[in-house]
Amino acid sequence: MVTQVIPTGLFAPRASDRRWSRHDATHLLRRAQFGASRAEIDRATADGLDKTLDCLLTSQPENEEFRLTESLLRRAAHDTGSAASLRAWWLHRMFYTANPLFEKLALFWHNHFATSIAKVNSVPHMAAQNDLCRTEALGSFRRLLHGMTKDVAMLIWLDGNANRRRHANENFAREVMELFSLGEGNYTEDDIKQAARAFTGWHVRDEQFWFNRRQHDFGPKTVFGRTANHDGGDIIDLCLAQSACPRFLAHKLLRAFVLDQPEKEHVAALAARIRARDFAMGAVLRELLASDFFYSETARAGLIKGPVELVLGALRALEARPNLQAVGRVAAQLGQDLFAPPTVKGWEGGRLWITSATLLQRNNFITALLDGQLGHLGAPATRTWGSAPAAVSFYTDLLLAKHPSPVERARLVAYPKQAQGDEAARTRGLLHLIMTLPEFQLT
Amino acid sequence: MQAKRISALLLTSALFLPLFAEPPQPAEVLPAGALVYLEAHGSGRLVRQFKESALWKLVQDSPQYQRMKQEPNYKQANTARILAETFLGMNLWTLGEKLLGGQVAVGVYPRAGRDQPDAVVLIRVKDRTVLDELRKRANPLALLAGEDVKRFKMPVNVDLWQMKNGLEIATRDDWAVIAQHRPLLLSVLRGIGGQAPKPLAADPEFRAMTSKFGANHDGRAYVNLASVVKGGQPRLGIPEKLDDGGASFFIHGILELAARSPYLGLTLDATDEGFALTAGFPSGPKTLGNKFGWFFSNPATQGTRPLPQVPGVLGGVTMHRDFGGWYSRREELLAENLLPGFDQFETEIANVLPGRDFTEDVLPALGKTVTFIAAEQSFDHLDGKPGVKLPGFALIFDLAKPREGADLFQLVFQTIAALTNFGAAESGNEPTVMTAEVYKGTTLTTARYLKKPKGDRLPIVYNFMPCAASVGNKFIISSSAGTCRALIDALKKPAAGPAPPNRNFNFEIRPSKLADLAAANREALLAQSLQQGKPLQQARGELDLIQKMLRAVKLFRLSTHVKPDQFHLKLEGKW
After folding, report:
1. Is A233 in a helix, a strand, or coil?
2. What is the DSSP letter of A194?
3. B264-284 pLDDT, tens digit each
4. What is the Cα–Cα distance from A130 to A198, expressed in whole angstroms?
5. Is there a contact between B267 and B220 (Cβ–Cβ < 8 Å)?
6. A121 vs B: CB within 8 A
7. Cβ contacts of residue A139 below 8 Å, gap of 6+?
């Protein structure tokens, strides 16, 4: 039975008398979405925390154009078998959906259950896995994990068909424990060996999951000290019952939504909420995003934007219409090729997004963006300004998680007077200066 | 200063006085020695045809044009247009139709001591009232312009306007002459009066061109290649040996003719149903000797065959090339650095043809014609259809030794099918097995799917079910059995109608059939536009416009023709 206890301590809700500010709304939207436009920030500020969270955490109806376009793009990806088209489809969803938090979590789960099209080699299978990540994005992690272990793309990726009664392949069992549920060091090698026997016969046949009875080991297995005729589903339930499981998930959620290097007490507190909510991720996210801790100074401007977030966020803030193919390519160049994570561990993220090579690429991306190579720029990038301080305030509020220092601000304010070219060129130059500040890399 | 100028003009004009006789043709007016000459007759009707055409209406109704009308640049240009039309007293379409309704000619001439040649434009209007009207309206403007525009009235109704930038415009009766070089302008005016010492029409190369290509065309052009060569570009800069194997195979013969020809002639003929633009060199293949015998078909024969008439043909190309002849002369034709690549190719192909030498065993089996064709396919090899519907494709090789050639190509076909199967296994696609069927007495070898793929949106790879067949001295390799069967029917049918003129190369495309293909793949094309960031409505509008434009055109053809003493390249369009 799930207890619906109101959280206390680190994830206690914000005090009701605490003012909901524009700064809070911006912080929430940037973490819960891929960037935010000025209109979205205005709306969230006016709506307040509860209404904004209701909107983010419940499924909103999509408009007609989104549905038609999404459907066309998905069919094109299936018909052509093109990974680039599949990426374009998902980027379209991320940018235009009325449910951005669902897409952000779909990306989170895609990274968690890292599977690459390079080996799976099938657009329909990768799309189906993506659908599962989305369906259970804010649903039950229990259901998601069960579903993922029978997912065709996952079975192909982890050589499920090689897992046979007389020759159990430990690859699948190891990844279920190490990467999907418990993390390294929270199981023994014997647990892996026995779990591998439980997953034997979990195969793919005729493009579907198939339980190959002839290749399944029906004998008793001892996993985490429990002996029974476990099958794959039982192993998953045993993993979920381990105390390491909510801790493993909590650490990842905190790194994705709150801060890059969470402390043990942060992890323990969130793990307790995950256990209390029996892995119902929607409820957990609501508590997290409504908590005082989420809006504390510790949690602000503390995450480095991943490539997809960086590119889509910039396009959203500048109200552009993205060229989806170009965006996919740029994100890949910056280190995040959707549907093709580099290893079974996915993208490590955090500080590892920034290297000397990718920092240069991030600056090149800004140049390409402001040149219109990634899509048609909207009003914020093309408007003219009567006052340099007003322009600087507008753009730093819109684009930066952290205000620049007074010295830096003075430099930005002085720029339009010194710059050459017409007004449009000066605006673009100012945007370039702001978007190449270190603060722009943070969310 | 002003008086001196007028006296000089009066003196010059005296040269014209006695002899303005019956109006001659533009080539009889322009002086000899032109590097380039262009002439058009009755183009005014083309202006009217275009203005009234469905195509122009399509463009005007398109969402893109409506959007463009909102742009500041368009609004500026439109304002300028309105001002000009008010000044002229007629709209620009009418002006264009009237100005171009008679004859228009352009000549480009070298000038001693200068790299840049000079150009002169000669217009002879059909309705001289338009020039009278333009003169009447321009005169007050010239007065207002002051020193920027000077106007001189010369005898025999010659008006001369001299612009500040050096451009001079002279009109006389129904002629207008525009040039920047005074002596050239005066020379043309003399020509109008029948006083050109040596007109272009008397140039030996120009006369030869007129004799070979005819004078009665809607437009024609002449390029004096000998003058370009004299100007310091031997062989027009075309090297004897090319450093691109593909360029050598496809166009080396044409380049060589160009390098050796004294001139290039072009003619244009346009009707309500289409147009034909022909370019020609005055020399035939015999002037190039045996070195290029592989390139040209015998002018006494049909050359390549017409494209096989299969249902739903989208287009294709037939080409006469003696591949064996080209290959054996590669050392004469190609740059040194390309030659090792051929040795490597022969080594690698030996893996597929063990115990055989490419030059001795393979080349002699090949004939001199190859055809590539694309046509709609029926997808009866599937239990459904692919999501993206491609046409069926086929290559048809003529074989000099049908039996040996057919065996060799069959071996290549089987090898490719086997390699494709490895790829299919890796991608999780349905593998194929080789089978044979007999269709109207011809054996087809087919790579049939192990299990017939089922579904209404199958992956793109299922457009292909490779097939091969031997028909007489021709070998067909096709991407689908349906296309192969259609080709067998077409190749076995005797040719209907009169034999077409000699064609060395023939490329045809039927845009209206491309429109059908676009309609069948509308979703995929829309998705491409959406991926580029276009809104759905814009994507739909653009695709609709493209389809309408394609449907308006029945045929485009690019062909080359060999004659004993000429070589022609022809671009045709039919709508």
Report:
1. helix
2. H
3. 999 999 888 899 999 999 888
4. 26
5. yes
6. yes
7. A280, A281, A282
